[in-house]
Amino acid sequence: MKHLENDSFTEFILLGLLQYNPTHFCIFVLITMMFLFTLTGNSLLILLILVDCHLHTSMYFFLWQLSLIDILFTLTSVPKMMTNYLLHKEVISTSDCGFQIFLGLALGGTECILLGLMSYDRYVAICKPLHYPLLMNWPLCRQMAVSSWTSGIFNALIHTVCTMRLPFCGSREINHFYCELPVVLHLSCEDTLTYETGILISTTILLLIPFSVILASYTLILVTVIQMSSAEGRKKAFSTCSSHLTVVSLYYGAIIFMYMRPISSHTSGQDKVASVFYTILTPMLNPMIYSLRNKDVMRALEKILCKCLLYFKM
């Protein structure tokens, strides 16, 4: 009877990220500002890439895909968290919870693969410039993008269906600010060891393989850069590579920490901090790292601003 009663539940309780005190309210304001900056920065970057013909290259094609993922990733969790905090609401339906799990896994997996493709694109452009038009042609780039989205969605669909079909016993409280696979899995009253092994395998494929490609690509890039005769060129390349690797390391490090540990070893405090890195922090940093330091993007922005000024003067 108790099992049937638990199966009839249609809601989870999200305990959230913040408490109702002055310090956490300041953090809430900070998160709100970061959220707005993420939406503005990534949307502007997408607009510039689509409008300016000089940015119609494979690198910027992958970049606007990354910006789109960052927007959707942030929208998956942050608005719900902000709404719950303002309305003092903690309830989320099981269907909405499953949808959050699906979107988080799909977008996260797609971004992992996409970051690997972007690093390979930079490797070819810097280390094999004469072969670049052949190796990174438009049909191949489109196939790469479609493959990354398909892989992420397929992996997310499998894990979401398997997770939401598990029996949940006792408390339905999720000590997190959104429904995330390891946290929800922790509530199951069924032995999930076999399923956790499946998660580890898929995580290895979607995380460690692209991360290995990133490390190998940037290692080869740095070797090529060291051999440059221009000291200014070396300095610029080192600065660019270090900033890219810093953001990528934050993103991959947090996800690996979240998804490659046994479910039993998870604690709510650590999980929340790790999730903030890849749902709030890196989506905000990506447009700054990939655009503000990029002369082509800044030139496109200047063109747009000049056109707007001329339009308003008329």
TrEMBL record:
Transmembrane segments: 25-51, 57-78, 99-120, 199-225, 237-260, 272-292
GO CC annotation terms, alphabetical: plasma membrane
Residues annotated as domain G-protein coupled receptors family 1 profile: 41-290
Membrane topology: Multi-pass membrane protein
Membrane found in the keyword field: yes
Single GO term (MF): olfactory receptor activity
Keywords: Cell membrane, G-protein coupled receptor, Membrane, Olfaction, Receptor, Sensory transduction, Transducer, Transmembrane, Transmembrane helix
Similarity annotation: Belongs to the G-protein coupled receptor 1 family.
Protein known as: Olfactory receptor
Residues included from the entire protein: 67 to 380 of 380
